[in-house]
Amino acid sequence: MVNHTALAADASASTAQCVIGELETRLGVKLLLRTTRRITMTNAGALFLTRARDVLADIEDAEDAARGVDSLRGTLRITIPIVYGTRNIIPRLPRFLGLHPLLRVELSVADERQNLVVEGTDVAIRLGPLNDSGFGARKLATLSRFLVAAPSYLAERGTPKTPADLASHDCIFGPGLFGRTTWSFTRNSAETSVDVRGRITTDSGPGVFASVLAGLGIAMMSPIMAGAEIESGTLVPVLKSYELAPVDVYAVFPAGPRPSTKVRALINFLAAELS
Fold first, then answer.
1. How far is CA 111 from the centre of its chain?
2. CB under 8 Å to 93, separation ≥6 — which residues?
3. d(CA 235, CA 229)
4. Residue 71 DSSP SS3
5. CA–CA separation, 149 and 236 (whole Å)
6. 63 and 118: one domain?
7. pLDDT, tens digit, for every residue of 13-31?
8. Do residues 79 and 212 both lie within one domain?
9. Nearest 5°: phi and psi at 160?
10. Beta bridge mates, 105
């Protein structure tokens, strides 16, 4: 039996290769590097893609201006971190989509920092310092942080009284800013730093969550990420009289300083909601 889906996919890939090949010939540069295992974008290809998206965004803005902001349509491709995104961004999307009923959303839920240009992302929600030079960004919120542990862990290992006590405990290392092995605290305007260690390192927020709930160590969290668990008693705050540096939440968009109308609408909405 003929697999029509596979044939259609092969035809689409072949057509795309032909179009890209013709474009490379006309421009006189390579846009893609092809090997037997993968295809990667060249610097020229990334620049061409960014400029092409700018042109498409201008056309889209013109269409949106003609229709009015209440008639925004099309697809928004959003990348969000797993725990923060599922607990604090997705629950707000019904209201946003209710304001813009013609919009669709494609969500990528991942803690790994993806290449926004290659992935075709319109806007990414990111925690901590930014390193996407040339991208546009807007701070949406600031999260306080604290340490938590499971009651079972504290019953077995004891409760640390000062940051120095962490040197004899297992700490859990997660993605981004939460994975630093030197943790700094402030109390009465005095700063204390301590080198911490542990047996668990994970590249995802849910991995940190599962590990601390299992009693594998002490982890760094924010109220949004662990508030419900603290209220229920499944997690317990540690070193409550010491402050950890907060972490900023940003919306990052690869379209440069002027995002599209759809992206601006989402960012403005989230800035009002999260502030």
1. 6
2. 105
3. 5
4. helix
5. 5
6. yes
7. 567 678 788 877 887 878 7
8. no
9. -65, 140
10. 76
